[in-house]
Specification:
Elements (H helix, E strand, L loop, with lengths): L6 H23 L6 H8 L3 H7 L3 H12 L12 H17 L4 H11 L3 H28 L9 H17 L7 H15 L6
Helix pairs in contact: 1-2, 1-4, 1-6, 4-6, 4-7, 5-6, 5-8, 5-9, 6-7, 8-9
Length: 197
C-alpha cells in the first residue's frame, strides 16, 4: 500500500529547515549577509515558499528567535522577587550570549532602529507580553508589601533592563551574575519598603 505524502508534515519540515538555516547563516556570515536567497538555498526551499510564509528576512529571524529564546514565557513567581528578577534578567542575557541566537537577536534590534514596523513586531512578539508579566509581578509585590506602596515601577523596569541593552548596543561586555545581583539589590533598596527603627 502506497502512503500519500502528508503536506502538513512537509510544510512543517520546510518551515523548521528555514528557521534553522536563517539562524545558522547569522552565525556564520552575520545578520546582513543572511539574505532570503541564502536562507532559501541553505534550507532547500524556494524563495516563493519563503515569501508565502514570511514577508521579509527579519520576520523569519523574529520567529526563529521567538521559538528558541530562553526568556521565560511566564514570569517566575517563587515568592522571592529578587530571585525572580535574577532569573528573568538571566534569561534576557541568555539570548544575547547564545551563540546561535545572539547574532540574530542583535541584528533584529539593530534593524528595528530603522524599521518602525519591525520594532513594533519585535515588541509584540518578544517583549511586551513578557514585560507586562514582570510589571504584574512587581505590582503584586507592591501590593503585598515586598515593595514600597509608592514604588515607581515604570522607572524600576527601565533601570533593570537598560544596562543589558546599553552594553549590547555599544559592544561593552555583558553583565555577569555578580553585576545582576548588584543591580537588583540597588533597585530593591530604592523601591523596597521603608525600614523603620
Amino acid at each position: 500500500m502506497t502512503r500519500t505524502p502528508n503536506p502538513d508534515r512537509r510544510r512543517d519540515r520546510s518551515r523548521r529547515a528555514t528557521l534553522a538555516a536563517a539562524l545558522e547563516l547569522c552565525v556564520e556570515r552575520g545578520y546582513a549577509a543572511a539574505t532570503v536567497d541564502a536562507i532559501a538555498a541553505r534550507a532547500g526551499v524556494s524563495k516563493a515558499t519563503i515569501y508565502r510564509w514570511w514577508p521579509a528576512k527579519s520576520a523569519i529571524l523574529l520567529e526563529a528567535v521567538d521559538e528558541a529564546a530562553p526568556i521565560p514565557e511566564t514570569f517566575p513567581d517563587t515568592g522571592d522577587l529578587a530571585a525572580d528578577l535574577l532569573a528573568w534578567l538571566s534569561g534576557i542575557l541568555g539570548v544575547f550570549r547564545d551563540p546561535h541566537l545572539g547574532p540574530a537577536f542583535t541584528g533584529l534590534l539593530a534593524e528595528s532602529q530603522l524599521d518602525a514596523h519591525l520594532a513594533q513586531q519585535l515588541r509584540e512578539r518578544l517583549i511586551d507580553h513578557r514585560v507586562a508579566q514582570l510589571e504584574e509581578r512587581m505590582t503584586k509585590a507592591r501590593e503585598n508589601g515586598e515593595l514600597a506602596a509608592d514604588a515607581d515601577l515604570e522607572v524600576a523596569l527601565d533601570v533593570l533592563h537598560s544596562p543589558i541593552y546599553r552594553r549590547q548596543a555599544l559592544h561593552y561586555p555583558l553583565p555577569d551574575d555578580t553585576y545582576l545581583d548588584r543591580l537588583i539589590s540597588l533597585v530593591m533598596r530604592a523601591i523596597g519598603p521603608a525600614h523603620t527603627d
